[in-house]
Structures are given as structure tokens and as C-alpha cells.
Write a structure and sequence with these properties.
Radius of gyration: 21 Å
Strand order of the largest sheet: 2-3-1-4-7-8
Number of domains: 2
Shape: globular
Number of helices: 12
Protein name: DUF4123 domain-containing protein
Number of strands: 9
Pfam families: DUF4123
Strand content: 5-15%
Organism: Glaciimonas immobilis
InterPro entries: DUF4123
Length: 289
């Protein structure tokens, strides 16, 4: 499967180990948990689901006892990060955006309760709920950026640090604010395990996935245009071009895909802008007739 992410950096495991030690040496009450997105690996997801039903396995499903409990086999799972487990799961997730690490003073069940408040988003304008895929590491940072300040602070109040294996196969750390379980206050658990977001926030979440959607479509329709290139580089090219399409009011989905496919084949960004300018002028000329 193609997920639009690079293979892990050769030094990733060493970087993770050094990063974890740095924090635990300062805060000895902090423990480490692995967060795995079960949707990317059916076999692993089923295994983790079965193990989560056999305590004390040190594995919990974030969907357990929630409105999403029927989807537990493809849930995000929290696992205690014992010595053999971390490198084994890291290796299994190479090239798959399903692996991140949490450092927190909360127990594994405390973290499960914390994240149960953020399993879905609801748009009050129509009352619809949608799962929030924060354990998909291609989405994690975009999700946090689209939450408002209070929501973001509440989300990050359950951990000291959240370490993501990013699109480049390296480590990105999101700092949290939880260093002492005694002073932690759990977030309010809303109806349907959801937080309310505005239509603007929802649009931002949808828009943030457009570059990944186009990248996957390129791989399916024209594999040679993608697989011989570094996935993260192609992704950033696409994401850089999308606002330029918006500026030129090139908004039709099929047209945007076609223009991006042409633009990333050009030798540089400025050639791509010239091409988009030409398309815009031709569109304006056609509309004026």
C-alpha cells in the first residue's frame, strides 16, 4: 500500500530512545506508551484487539466503552512501551503513518479516559459526528492546528510529550502540559465522545487532507510520477501549490488534480506558477466571450 510517507530514517530508533530518556530523567514519574492506529494493518489491529480483552496485557483500545466500540478492531490502541515491543512495532510501521509515542504521568487507562473526549468532532450546524483520526500521523499536526486554543490545550493536557514519526520518517515532538498526575483534571466527556467544532474548523480539516488525497490519486493513476520520487517532497510540492490554485479561483476537483499532476512534472515552482497563470488567463478570456 502507498501512504505517501517516507521510510524511517536509519537513526530513528536511536533518536527515539535518546528523546525518551531526556524527559524521563527529568520527570521520573512519567511513563511511556505507544499509540498505534489499527486501521493501517488489519492483522495487527485484530491482534491488539484480542490482546486488549486479556488483561493485564498492557494494551487498551481507545474505542472501548465509547460510541465507536463497534469499530474496536480498527481502533487506535495504547500499549505500554516495554523493551521488545517498541522496536518491533516501530519496524512494522516503516512507511506506514500509524506509530507515535506518548510520555505521560497518567496510567494507560487514564490516557484512555483522556482521549475518549476527543474521539469525534461534531458540527453543531447539522449535528453530524465524524471520527477524529489523530493517531494517523499524517493528520495529527493538522488536526491540532484546526482545533481552537481551548480544545488544543485540553487535548495536550493529558501528556508531557507526544512524539510522532512524521512524513519524513523522522521524529516530531508535540509538547504537552501534564507532568503530574495529581494536578491533572480530565476533560469533560461530551455526548458521542465528541467535541463541537465550527463549520470553518470542519472545512479546515477537510482542506488539510487534500494534498494527501491528490498524492494517493497520483499514485493510483500514474504511479511512475510518484514512486520514483521522495513521497514527502512530492507531498510538500502539492501542498505548496494548492493555495496558488485557490488564488486563481481554480476550484474544480478534477481540474485541480490535473493541474497538480502537470505542475509537479515541471522543473521548478516558478514554472508551475507560470503554467497556472496561463490557465487562469485562458479561463478569463473564455469567460469573457
Amino acid at each position: 500500500m502507498f501512504y505517501g510517507v517516507d521510510s524511517h530514517h536509519p537513526n530513528l530508533l536511536r533518536q527515539i530512545e535518546a528523546t525518551l530518556v531526556t524527559l524521563t530523567e527529568k520527570h521520573q514519574n512519567i511513563t511511556t506508551k505507544i499509540l498505534i492506529n489499527g486501521t493501517f494493518d488489519d492483522e495487527l489491529g485484530l491482534h491488539l484487539f484480542n490482546q486488549s480483552k486479556r488483561p493485564p496485557a498492557g494494551i487498551v483500545s481507545l474505542y472501548e466503552n465509547s460510541v465507536l466500540s463497534d469499530l474496536e478492531e480498527c481502533a487506535p490502541f495504547l500499549l505500554s512501551a516495554d523493551s521488545p515491543r517498541l522496536p518491533r512495532l516501530l519496524e512494522r510501521s516503516d512507511g506506514v503513518p500509524m506509530f507515535s509515542i506518548l510520555q505521560s504521568p497518567l496510567t494507560i487507562h487514564g490516557l484512555q479516559r483522556h482521549f475518549s473526549a476527543f474521539l469525534q468532532v461534531r458540527t453543531p450546524s447539522d449535528g453530524r459526528c465524524f471520527p477524529l483520526a489523530f493517531s494517523d500521523t499524517t493528520c495529527s499536526e493538522d488536526i491540532l492546528q484546526n482545533l481552537n486554543e481551548n480544545q488544543r490545550n485540553a487535548f495536550c493536557a493529558g501528556f508531557a510529550a507526544w512524539h510522532l514519526v512524521n512524513r519524513e520518517g523522522k521524529l516530531t515532538t508535540i509538547n504537552g502540559t501534564c507532568f503530574d498526575a495529581a494536578s491533572y483534571a480530565p476533560p469533560a466527556l461530551g455526548d458521542a465522545n465528541a467535541i463541537n467544532i465550527t463549520d470553518k474548523q470542519f472545512a479546515g480539516l477537510i482542506d488539510s487532507g487534500e494534498a494527501d488525497y491528490i498524492l494517493r490519486q497520483l499514485f493510483e493513476n500514474s504511479p511512475s510520477s510518484v514512486k520514483d520520487h521522495i513521497s514527502s517532497v512530492t507531498f510538500h510540492q502539492i501542498r505548496q501549490l494548492l493555495p496558488e490554485l485557490n488564488k486563481r479561483e481554480l476550484t474544480q476537483e478534477e481540474e485541480r488534480y490535473t493541474l497538480i499532476a502537470e505542475a509537479i512534472r515541471l522543473p521548478d515552482f516558478y514554472k508551475a506558477l507560470d503554467m497556472l497563470d496561463t490557465v487562469q488567463k485562458l479561463r478569463a478570456s473564455s469567460d469573457s466571450k
